[in-house]
Amino acid sequence: MKRIGVLTSGGDAPGMNAAIRAVVRTAIYKGMTVVGINRGYNGLLNGDMYEMDVRSVSSIIQRGGTKLFSARCKEFKEEAGVLRGVEACRKAGIEGLVVIGGDGSYRGAGDLSRHGIPTIGLPGTIDNDISSTDFTIGYDTAMNTVMQLVDKLRDTSHSHDRCSVVEVMGRDAGYIAVNSAVACGAVEVLCPEKEYNVEEIIAKMQASRKIGKQNFIIIVAEGIGHSQELAERIQRETGIEARATILGHVQRGGSPTVRDRVLASQMGNYAVNLLEKGIGNRVVGIRGTKLVDYDIQEALKMTKPFDDDLYDLTKVISI
Ligand code: ADP
Ligand code: F6P
Prior knowledge:
Helix content is 43%, strand content 18%. It is elongated and about 70 Å long. It starts with a strand and ends with a helix. The protein is α/β, with parallel strands linked by helices. Helix 7 (198-210) links the parallel strand 7 (188-190) and strand 8. Adenosine-5'-diphosphate is lined by residues 9-11, 41, 72-73, 76-77, 101-105, 107-108, 111, 125.
């Protein structure tokens, strides 16, 4: 394989730039040329692409966001869109492709592979909701961002003897919520994987108040939502002043952590090594400390165990 493409797709994540850099530099090191495709599958369909050289990726390892921009492309969900994508690859001389994104992006990568464009998926999403890897690119940075922000909220909530209800990202998954709850000493965490009971939360808060607990952090995953209503109900039923804060897209930005930069660099390199061998229709993941790759369709069928022990830990150490 002599010429490959790279794109980022779906929600952006810190570390995507480090992955792009590793793809570009590894490919050039191996004597390949690299085409950077802007705005995900949209750029592929619109011909929004350019040849990258080693300097195209200078000084991006430390930056959040994605140099190649990201987008969602409805057309690519239809067979006709995929066929146009295949045609666009052929026209641009792209023999293999690296797609950095989430599950949806993996489906597009599988479709391209099925039509003869070997494509490798790299897990780029802050949510960590990709079953074929223990960790996704961007997750560690997002959790650190949440931790720093919740620490700031704790300062003010402590000064006023208040309860802070904090909504974190994770539409379908509570990985950010549970980990940040442990890291920030939250009294409760509400996430899509677990049932919750507001009466029990309120009773626990009242019992903790009796033994001297003055301020409270409650983490709510985006998939649960209703943070404002929860804060109002807590205030109404406990008499403890409560404020809701939705952290929002600030969690998707910022300079990637060392873990995300290293993971992204390793995965970008691994993807090009597969393409060099003519291997496509794979996604890259990490299991423990080892990089692995799976067939895309098999990867999409996998499920990811929820860490019940970590969830239970929040209950034990937050009284
Ligand atoms: P993520 O990749 O982060 O899960 P999306 O689900 O929005 O984000 O998917 C990103 C893009 O991947 C979509 O806009 C679309 O272009 C492509 N995609 C999503 N689902 C499919 C599908 N079933 N078949 C082909 N392409 C898809
Ligand atoms: O990247 C994943 C994610 O952050 C989800 O947790 C969130 O629901 C979603 O993206 C929001 O994406 P957008 O606002 O870009 O549509």
